[in-house]
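Posting this for the archive.
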Amino acid sequence: GFRCDMAWAVPDSFWRELRDRVKDIDREFLLMDETIPYIPGFHEGMFDVHFDATLYFQLRQVGRGAAPAESVIDAVEQRAEIGFPDHAGFLQYIENHDETRYRVECGDSAAAAAGAATVTLPGVPMVYAGQEIGQRGRRDAIAWDHARDDVRDRYERLLRTHAEHPALGPEGDLDRVGYHVASGDLTERPIQADGEEVHPDDVVAFRRERGTEALVVVLNFAPAEAAVAVEVDHGTTNVVTGEACVVTDGDGTERIAVEDVAVVPIEAGP
């Protein structure tokens, strides 16, 4: 396929003719536009997938502490609100060659959560060259000799989880869920570590569902571990790590413990 730079600066008639020609040759040929901000009219008869600069910008705002984590759901819901059809595709990213690396601007903890957001929100996740090894220079040669194994392992787990759980894919539904971030000590683990505290605005939880599979996703942009009570019946295992993730606070409330991301199966009702 083609990634079409500055698509907004080219007459629509050119893109429509291009689409007709390449689709006649190969119906699976992919056309992706860079249109910032994106324009719903560029979908029908022109492009299959769109650069999601709106989500990108909002993830940067969250990482800087300038917006609550829940605002990333607003960014995704805006797609339909401004006129995109349900089948429109969106490329989700946190880094590219034009911008400072996310972790340089927002820190490692926020970068881990933001990367997880691109994999767990509905869309097509993109990992920019070097992002998966903790690269800090945006256009430098890939620093393989200085690759961070912890970052690489995290992305491998995230992408494997995305592949194994259709509910996380672009066709999975996204729904809001009620959630509450603990503000007191837990009986099994503390809510804060190394003097860092988790603010409710650092955390967002949402539901992904497709067919018979339903998952709750919790993202934590703070440096400290968060404990989050979610208003759905859920399991006890974070499928990203394969480890138990449920802790209990002093009044018996079960909460999901999350460092950067937890993806937990939702239990079916009676």
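Residues 149-164 form the longest helix (16 residues). Residues 217 and 263 are 5 Å apart (CA to CA).
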